[in-house]
From TrEMBL:
Pfam families: zf-C2H2 (PF00096). The keyword Repeat applies. GO terms for cellular component: chromosome. SUPFAM superfamilies: beta-beta-alpha zinc fingers. GO terms for biological process: positive regulation of DNA-templated transcription. It comes from Argiope bruennichi (Wasp spider). The lineage of its organism: Eukaryota, Metazoa, Ecdysozoa, Arthropoda, Chelicerata. One of its GO terms (molecular function) is DNA-binding transcription factor activity, RNA polymerase II-specific. Residues 8-35, 36-63, 64-91 form the C2H2-type domain. Keywords: Metal-binding, Repeat, Zinc, Zinc-finger. This is Zinc finger protein 467 like protein. The keyword Phosphoprotein does not apply. Gene3D superfamilies: Classic Zinc Finger (3.30.160.60). It comes from the Eukaryota.
Length: 95
């Protein structure tokens, strides 16, 4: 049996997907709809995962330490971005 999903096309740009939820999420980029609200500071977001990540910033918990300088971060992505900065200046060649 072959499964065939119907593609949905964004009315604003060339984006297409077979997942209805992905299209709903994508269209918010164009419409600036921000239905997800931080319960602490009331900042609005267009994606649920973004508001959940943001809410960690209101916590005192910083579970992700940098292995180089031990500075701590509330998200793994923030720590990895910081970690890469330790090595960014060492990539240029002296040749």
């Amino acid at each position: 049996m072959e499964s065939c999903k119907k593609l949905s096309f964004c009315p604003y740009c060339p984006y297409a997907t077979a997942h209805k939820g992905h299209m709903q999420r994508h269209k918010r980029i164009h419409t600036n709809e921000r239905p997800f609200v931080c319960v602490v500071c009331h900042k609005r977001f267009n994606r649920k995962d973004h508001v959940l990540s943001h809410m960690k910033s209101h916590s005192k918990e910083l579970p992700y330490p940098c292995q180089v300088c031990s500075h701590r971060f509330y998200t793994k992505n923030d720590m990895l971005r910081h970690f890469a900065e330790h090595f960014a200046d060492n990539t240029s060649s002296d040749a």
